[in-house]
């Protein structure tokens, strides 16, 4: 390969670079914690490289790159500090929009997993990247982590390869409405507890931190556990897609703390129906989370969207949303049922596939349009 001697190094601080996703922007290099977290540039020149620093204990990060809005690459990253070519041999004067983004969710059980961006190498100039018309925040579980959006239907391995931002309903809705988006999601986690009844694996407990579900000294140094500054990025709408794992917890054994002996369990009655007391505390968790979201996002629409992986808790969640509306008199909060995944729309790991995400994205985008979101 002929070396381009005109390449110059640019740190993120010295160029026009748009940062996507919750992160600590005072950090250098910049950590990308969540799926969909990204750096986006408008750049001239013939060539562009990005310098990253990567590590992990178990699961390697996956990343993607879009060029002028089209996905052009997707790959796993190995540990180390190195450069990745994002494009080369392109027309020197044309402005290229490039987004380098994290495909993989934040990994709560891999303290060593991190993806850091140092800067770019280019022979061009960096131009401003304008904001899009709207800002959308998506909060969820494995569905919002894009689990099942890549891979054959028979795949059942729980690995980063089969998770994504690029084939995710969140990015589809955002593209339909010309919106920037941020994702907060974790596979297996719920509103009240995880799929296997762990009471501390719930999204509301970490919502007010930059990336509060991460642990370990490295993540703390990277700023993951800092309070999130909601005033820095106020969404026009918050879309919550939680409840699937809470439904699963009713069918799983009790969780037992191996140190204290404490147990937690969502129970079914002998006839197979939900224990009313356990259902009540789940509904209260929905109400409390809506109040938490509203407190931090005073002007946003809030849409609780549910159903892509079964309708088990449709009625309890819808009733809890309505009870929150009654108690708070909050008329900008809604429940929206999404279509269940079928044999035709399922993806890998028995999760919603790309077709399922497309169906739900169309419904969500249409609903937001009915609230006044119009692509400009």
For the biggest sheet, the summary is: 6 strands, antiparallel
Share of residues in strands: 25-35%
SSE ordering: EEEEEEEEEEEEHEHEHEEHEHEH
Number of helices: 6
Shape: globular
In helices, the fraction of residues equals: 10-25%
End-to-end separation in angstroms reads 43 Å
> What is the β-strand count?
18
Index terms:
single chain, 376 residues, alpha+beta, six-stranded antiparallel β-sheet, five-stranded antiparallel β-sheet, 6 helices, 18 strands, globular
Overview of the structural elements:
Helices cover 19% and strands 26% of the residues. With 376 residues, it is α+β, with helices and mostly antiparallel strands. Helix 4 (276-296) packs across helix 5. The model has no long low-confidence stretch (mean pLDDT 97).
In short:
The protein has 376 residues and is an alpha+beta fold.
Question: What layout of secondary structure does this protein have?
Answer:
Elements: E1 8-11, E2 18-20, E3 30-31, E4 38-43, E5 48-55, E6 62-67, E7 70-76, E8 80-87, E9 96-102, E10 114-122, E11 126-127, E12 134-140, H1 169-177, E13 179-185, H2 217-221, E14 237-241, H3 244-249, E15 255-256, E16 263-264, H4 276-296, E17 301-306, H5 314-328, E18 333-337, H6 354-370
Parallel strand pairs: 12-13, 12-14, 14-17, 17-18
Antiparallel strand pairs: 1-10, 2-4, 3-10, 4-9, 4-11, 5-8, 5-10, 6-7, 6-9, 15-16
Helix pairs in contact: 1-6, 4-5
